[in-house]
Specification:
This protein is an alpha/beta fold. The chain has a single domain, classed as NAD(P)-binding Rossmann-like Domain (Rossmann fold, 3-Layer(aba) Sandwich). 45% of the residues lie in helices and 14% in strands. Strand 1 (2-6), helix 1 and strand 2 (26-31) form a beta-alpha-beta unit.
Length: 313
């Protein structure tokens, strides 16, 4: 079976490519700008941009499974950039896949941290992309599966390991509401188990699945301070109220627009850090047979080993 992985050099994409190869699949990985740290000779790497149909059409001609990991992933930025990549890019892939009758189109969506109004163009654009895919399934039977990961962590993770670690080391980090929000930890290997199961279960077609480790006891206070402990840094004591954090975040986004000052906190990040929404994985357990094998403590031990090997700590 042949797989086409977009975003093949990102954290999730890189891990997915390795897993697919291990499971015996043939893999064609799409590279946009970021090259893989190490080229695997068993992987056919190709260059292209999902926003340009002409550059990717030939890559999908003999493909069975499309695993769409590519996205513009930031918690701030211009609306048009998010829409061009996350919505129009997805529509381009779908239009080509319909010509080639692929077996499954697996899309990495966005988990709903809260039930109130969406914050940020990333969540908005990913939600609209999901709506487009669901409509294609209802109208045309297009074989979609939507996987919505939580906060994906593990060896190699940038967003939820290296970036907070860097902020901790520079003493440029604060808890929001004392870090009582839920860290929806999703160990990378558990996520990959869910993705591969969605490729094989016919009952998964047309469905969406929220994927986490199923543990709601870990707060942001615990996770960030566990990272600090692993790195040998002082525990995080600085705290901001949600109101004050939102005020600072909004100001920093404005400063970025005017002066290109990189914001160290944004309204979208605050929504994540103060999330109290419980995400059920019962549907994934029932339909996919999903059973997260790596728990939080084992995940943190693996991260610590990796950080030491790579000389981050």
């Amino acid at each position: 079976m042949r797989c086409f992985v977009t975003g093949a050099t990102g954290f999730i994409g890189t891990s997915l490519v390795k897993r697919l190869i291990k499971e015996g699949y043939e893999v064609r990985g799409l590279i946009h700008k970021k090259k893989p740290i190490k080229f695997d000779e068993r992987v056919e790497y190709v260059y292209g941009d999902i926003r340009d149909v002409s550059t990717i059409r030939s890559y999908l001609r003999d493909i069975d499974f499309v695993l769409h990991c590519a996205a513009y992933v930031k918690d701030f930025g211009p609306r048009n950039v998010f829409y061009e990549t996350n919505i129009e890019g997805t529509k381009n892939l779908v239009s080509i896949c319909k010509d080639f009758a692929i077996k499954r189109f697996i899309f990495l969506g966005h988990i709903n941290y809260e039930t109130d109004k969406a914050v940020g163009y990333y969540r908005e654009s990913k939600t609209k992309a999901e709506d487009i895919l669901k409509l294609e399934h209802r109208k045309n039977g297009f074989p979609i599966v939507i996987i919505r990961p939580g906060n994906v962590f593990g060896p190699g993770a940038t967003t939820w390991v290296l970036r907070p670690l860097q902020s901790i080391k520079k003493n440029r980090i604060a808890l929001v509401e004392y870090g009582r929000g839920i860290f929806l930890h999703t160990y990378i290997d558990n996520l990959l188990d869910a993705i591969l199961a969605s490729m094989l279960k016919k009952e998964a077609v047309g469905e969406d699945f929220d994927i986490t480790d199923g543990d709601y006891s870990v707060t942001w206070d615990k996770y960030l301070n566990d990272l600090a402990r692993i790195a040998g840094e002082n525990q995080i004591k600085r705290n901001l109220s949600r109101k004050k954090a939102l005020m600072i975040g909004n100001i920093m986004v404005i400063l970025h627009k005017i002066f290109r000052v990189y914001p160290w906190i944004t309204p979208y990040a605050i929504q994540i850090f103060t999330n109290k929404n419980i995400i059920s994985i019962d549907k994934a357990k029932s339909i996919l047979g999903y059973n997260p094998k790596v728990d939080y403590e084992e995940g943190m031990r693996n991260i610590e080993k990796w950080l030491k090997v790579e000389n981050y700590i």
